[in-house]
# Entry
Amino acid sequence: MENNYLGNETISTEIKSWIASIAMLGALISSPVAGICVDQLGRKNSMLIFTAPFILGWLLISNSHKLHVLLIGRFLTGFCGGAFSLAVPVYISEISEPKIRGALTSLFQVMMVLGILFTYIVGSYLPWNDLAFISAFVPGLSLFLLPFVPQTPRYLLRSGKSMQAGRSLHWLRNSEYISQTELEIELLQIEQSIEDSHEETPKFIDVFKTHLLKPIVISLSLMVFRQMSGFHAIIFFIGGIFQAAGSPLDSNTSSTIVGSVQVLATIVSSVLVDRLGRRILLVSSQIVMILSLCGLGAFFFIKEGELHHRLDAVYVGYLRWLPLLCILTFIIGFNIGVGPLSWTLMGELLPPNVKGACSSISTALAWICAFLVTKNFDTVALALGVSSCFWIFSGFGFIGLISIYLTVPETKGKSLEDIQQIFKKKEVGHTLSSSHVISQQHI
# Structure
């Protein structure tokens, strides 16, 4: 697609935006499908089902000489990627011990950013269709390895398969490091949690009860603020951003630096998440992103406006490094907090009896936002200026900061059962408080 051509077809700005965003559209459409599969077929089987079309999507992209073939391939890879982004956090949260659950769930984000870095490096040397062919080997590896891992004990217990659930937990915990008694206690706790939640689909009106509504709203809001940070737009259009900024480094070098920093930041997050906790990383993440986006907005405001012409050439030269610095700090901020922890908290907060359905809603909302941001980034940049895009992103970041500070509970070191009790206790406390007020009024 170099020089804006695909075969004999010209790639316009509008078509570029569709190539960028149609994967998000695929991910959006996959969310309800994946939610049903996760609940009805299990977490592991759901991932297995989506590996074959994932491979097909990459092969279509690698052999696309027509625009419609490329778009179908992009849609398929987005569809399957969206399904995995729902199933994987749920699977990991249900197989992990509380003390390492945050780190393991963060590894999902580590793998994603390693994939992005891989595409930056290999894409610097190979044409895009060869890169797509190589990418097909990743879901191929999943197709080969997934049959060797078990279903989650929670899903097996829900399905009435107690013996298999015990074997699954035994395999996951490794009996060399944990006693049979401890395994039985953990299995009983999971079983009790399932019984307490009745594992039935709640009526629509039940969703408005505090112990269900609050974790659902928190999960939804985290996904919205994650995507409205502009991360996907920045990653996809990063070369164009550096080109527009007049960066002294070529776009391939700048992208590789950004990808490397992204991997390191995500690894640091996976180490810190079970030591410092979720809240402090989320709040710190939002603050760093807001400042970075404001810096990018200020740079492009100066560059786009008359102020650029009034500045001494020396100062303008210094400012050319600002976009790279701001994008690096933005990437660090995103990947130490809201990037990985949105998925982590989705797996932790959602009640087990609505996890599949609400995960699909949460993931769908995330991909709606990602689609809108990626599809319209170029359009808004042309209409209002690049600076306006970054200031809009920073505005959403500020709203996200307030929301996180006021609503997100700390889940570090807590079992999934303990996390649900946090919301149930708050509902009981609210009910008792209301009853007390009513009784006082009658007196």
Observations:
- Confidence is low (pLDDT under 50) at residues 428-439.
- DSSP finds 21 helices and two strands in the chain.
